[in-house]
Write a structure and sequence with these properties.
Keywords: Membrane, Transmembrane, Transmembrane helix. By secondary structure, the protein is mainly alpha-helical. It has helices at 2-12, 20-24, 34-50, 56-67, 71-99, 101-118, 125-141, 145-155, 160-189, 191-212, 239-250, 254-269, 271-284, 289-314, 319-340, 347-359, 364-375, 379-408, 412-430, 436-439.
Length: 440
Amino acid sequence: MNRITDSATAQAAPPRRPSRTARLRDPSRPRIHRAWIVAAVTFVTIIGGAAFNSLPGLLIDPLHTEFGWSRGEIGLAVSIDMALYGLTAPFAAALMDRFGIRRVVAVALSAVAAGALASVWMTAAWQLMLYWGLLVGLGTGSMAMAFSATVTHRWFVARRGLVTGILTAAGASGQLVFLPLCAWIVDGHGWRPASVTVALAALVVVPFVWLLMRDHPADVGLAPYGGAYVEKPAPAKGAARRAVRVLADAARTGPFWLLAGTFAICGASTNGLIRTHFVPSAHDHGMPITAAASLLAVVGVFDVIGTIFSGWLTDRFDARRLLALYYALRGVSLLFLPMLLAPAVHPPMVFFIVFYGLDWVATVPPTLALCREQYGEDSAIVFGWVLASHQVGAALVAFLGGVARDAFGSYDVVWYAAGAMCATAALMALVIRRPRAVAA
């Protein structure tokens, strides 16, 4: 009798309305997963922060002409920016765990805007190092690839390689948008309006970050894309200590040093060399600044394609072999570059630009995949330290490239040295050992 009564009561009772959290986690709801919205905001944020990276190569000659500063001095300011960009990244990843992505990124964008805007009134080389080096370096470093790694790790389980490639391509997209624009402004109106443009670009992104970015899928009652729902962890305390501890643990392993070494060479041969010194080197051969900047913008076009395709490949092939292939091909291309520079753009130079664009940051998805494979939950912070080595390599070449130009009157020796370093990176990638569980 009780069973009949209970059954009748259950049938008569109205269905219980699911909670808001359950509704948000309902996989049958026909809407775009919030992870893709967060990824889109991250993409736009990186573009806004990357606007400044379009400037250094364009301003070396104007600053040298106006203030009489040597290319070595200007290169030193750029190298400070790049070094801080890298060294800030692992602490920024830990700070995002402690204070949230939105707060850290909003402050970082404001720092970039402040540094770019303050440089309009500079009159001494030390101010260049303070504004470009310190403020912009700290700001862009907080939105470095560790930012992408944190977003990807929290919001995605499926399609991580693809999303990593898309977010990595955001930096190249910023270059694509801002390089031609800034080159046109510098050529027609001077370098100061270009610096103001970069400041405004950073500020415009702040409202999007604050309104649309969320720190964790649990904040909106969702599971990560392609994964199971997990509760948001408590804010991590001791962010700086954690970053240092993770570095100390990773430094005891061989793969960390191989990944850091290959990525240092990656930074030296991209940000430090091509992004900083390609335009003045082409100008040395009689090519107009606007034409050289347009070539770099084309690099940005193919960088987007190459990076996304590299993410797709990383989901399917051995990341170590991909890295070796990328570095070997890059090294060969750099050995030919001194023979391609000329007053006018010709087909072999276009081929170099297309090829280098496809290879530019194609190294990021497999490098990040290897960090995840080796270091698990600490992978975002480990990748931040690996990125620091990338920027240290870039900083050294940004400075030494300017010194070499002052000393030899040419960049040729720098191109050849970078080609040899890329060959070394290819060999280093091949000897990275996979974890035993993965190898089995």
